[in-house]
């Protein structure tokens, strides 16, 4: 499935949530979608948990 189709489905889900559930439902669906995205990337191995806890300076020069 292409990223354009995934983006369209996510946009439609957010639109339905906003229309039928209001702004609070829109925010809830968006937040849960973002969490699901991060967890999915982590499970696929594209994201390392340490990326969230290292400082920027350590990433630039390669030190831990």
Summarize the structure.
By secondary structure, the chain is mostly helical.
Commentary on this structure:
It is a single chain. The chain is mainly α. The chain has one domain. Helices cover 73% and strands 0% of the residues. It has helices at 3-21, 23-44, 56-61. The longest helix is centred in the middle third of the chain and has 22 residues, at 23-44. The termini are far apart. The model has no long low-confidence stretch (mean pLDDT 80). The chain crosses the membrane at residues 12-39.
Helix content: over 70%
How many structural domains can be distinguished in the coordinates? Answer: 1
The shape is: extended
Number of beta strands: 0
**Structural class by secondary-structure content:** mainly alpha
Count of helical regions:
3
Radius of gyration: 16 Å
The end-to-end span amounts to 37 Å
Amount of beta strand: under 5%
- What string gives the helices and strands in order? HHH
Low-confidence stretches: none
Sketch the major β-sheet.
none
What is the mean predicted local confidence, pLDDT?
Answer: 80
């Amino acid at each position: 499935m292409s990223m354009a189709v995934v983006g369209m489905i996510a946009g439609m889900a957010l639109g339905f949530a906003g229309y039928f559930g209001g702004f609070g439902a829109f925010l809830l669906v968006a937040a849960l979608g973002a969490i699901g995205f991060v967890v999915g990337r982590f499970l696929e191995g594209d994201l390392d948990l340490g990326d969230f806890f290292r400082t920027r300076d350590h990433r630039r020069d390669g030190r831990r």
